[in-house]
Model the fold of this input.
Amino acid sequence: MIEVSRTLSVNDGTQPPLGLDEVWEGLVDKARNPLPYIASMSECSVTERFDGGLVREIVHAGQPVREVVTFYPKQRVHFVRTHGTAKGTIDNELGFDEAGELALTFAFRIVLDGTEPGSTQEKKFAAHMEADYLDAVRTTLKAVRDRVAGTATGISA
Done:
């Protein structure tokens, strides 16, 4: 199993500073339409909506994946990959660090079908996925900052 967790400070000096509500809106937007945020996703179709979440079919790194996405308002977006070669969970979680500053943590726990734990293939996949999601978090925060600053990015809330 691949397990990765990274926490980033939301307000690292980049202007304008962001609040919990603004970052939450960005995370929800990314869950509904990840294409502007995650370079290795080429398709996304929301196939079902339910109270508190949605089901989406995506193509990530050329592979079809189904994810059930659950929203825990202003706390966490939880993704469960139910179909595809990489199954498991992904979380985008808002919280506060020890200094009381807003922080965003992404974590994933993924099992890659047909791959030996600890193998080179698994390590490559983990590194690619971690880089992808780190970039997605940065892209999300930039899009939210652009929206707050009043500059259009083409990404909607």
In short: The chain has one domain: 2-148. The two ends are 34 Å apart (CA to CA).
